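Escalated from tier 1: guanosine-5'-diphosphate-rhamnose holo job.
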Amino acid sequence: MRRKALITGITGQDGSYLAEFLLEKGYEVHGIKRRASLFNTQRVDHIYQDPHSADQRFELHYGDLTDSSNLTRILSEVRPDEIYNLGAQSHVAVSFEAPEYTADVDALGTLRLLEAIRFLGLDRTTRFYQASTSELYGLVQETPQTETTPFHPRSPYAVAKLYAYWICVNYREAYGIYACNGILFNHESPRRGETFVTRKITRGLANIAQGLEPCLFMGNIDSLRDWGHAKDYVRMQWMMLQQDTPRDYVIATGKQYSVRQFIAWSAEELGITLRFEGEGLDEIAVVEAVRGDKAPALSPGDVVLRIDPRYFRPAEVDTLLGDASRARAELGWQPEITVREMCAEMVAEDLAAARRHALLKDHGMAVPVSVEG
Ligand code: NDP
Ligand code: GDR
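Tier 2 regenerated the structure:
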């Protein structure tokens, strides 16, 4: 019998990589997709299979984590061996603007799935992965952070994810459900949403280099993160569900860099040397030199980055650094893609898109450029 996986958040960054990974492993992959006025399936279009085709192994179901009747129906139809709960309102800054919705999706959505597992009598057969997060550590109590570091969430997103973390542990202890939390540190890729910091930088600088945008406006560029590649992290999500006993694991690279450093690397990939000048709200990044043909719109002296306080958060997570020793020792996991390799990959894809858009613009066509986030 082919194994069946159900992924919430399949249209997101991780969902798309995980779906690819599981299809390669021979799984039948089901995904829950929200109804929207546009298709919104760009990240999974390349693996989409027509429902009329014979031997269909990839299927999307309309659904929403705020709707328990619909979740229960999908679970009863699919009866998956493994559920990966990746669906979430996943943007920390947005969670301050939509705290109640974030709690509904990220916290109660997890409960709804676990209850559906119980209600349908899948508690002995279906394994459950919960997308937990390093944001749980928030105001960090020790460095590096491990599975035993105390939590101190700093946003409505993180508080909602804290509920989801504990309800997962609780259903494991109370009902014996195979449920585990992957406490994942930031992970990125060319498929990262445009309003998360790394993608905002690689896409923004590529657009500026091609003359599509004048300047990047950023928030706290002193923030420190432990960034890995999403491809390495979804492999670990699957590995976690293959153990005899469910357990929670930190997934991280163990290396930490500032947002400013990521900006400098991204600029280097475009042949631009940047100089940071000024302090606080007056800090800017100025082009010092341009090499090669990737940034025809830029010259020395151009200002490509300014600070805009609108991107500061009401409460910030200043520093995160993970220790994935448990995952390494028990599962043999370690990341294969370095942050520099990832940055190069992201810039290359965003530059290719920016070049296409510049060509369209030259021919008088509208192109998507600025994003808030
Ligand atoms: P994305 O934001 O790229 O994807 C989120 C997914 O959730 C999208 O498919 C989105 O659908 C879906 N979704 C949002 N709201 C709902 C809803 N109400 N009902 C059903 N689905 C919904 O996130 P990532 O792929 O980056 O992250 C995956 C998970 O891992 C998330 O839970 C995130 O919080 C968590 N996480 C991510 C980390 C990271 O660094 N990437 C680190 C730690 C945890 P749509 O496409 O329609 O918007
Ligand atoms: P984060 O990711 O909040 O860590 O949550 P994000 O990339 O949004 O921010 C990282 C850090 O960069 C700072 N920053 C900015 N961030 C954004 N988005 N835009 C800016 O202009 C900007 N300027 C500075 C932020 O303040 C922050 O310190 C991500 C999400 O994927 C969560 O779902 C996940 O749980 C965590 O990672 C681990």
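The first strand starts at residue 4 and ends at 8.
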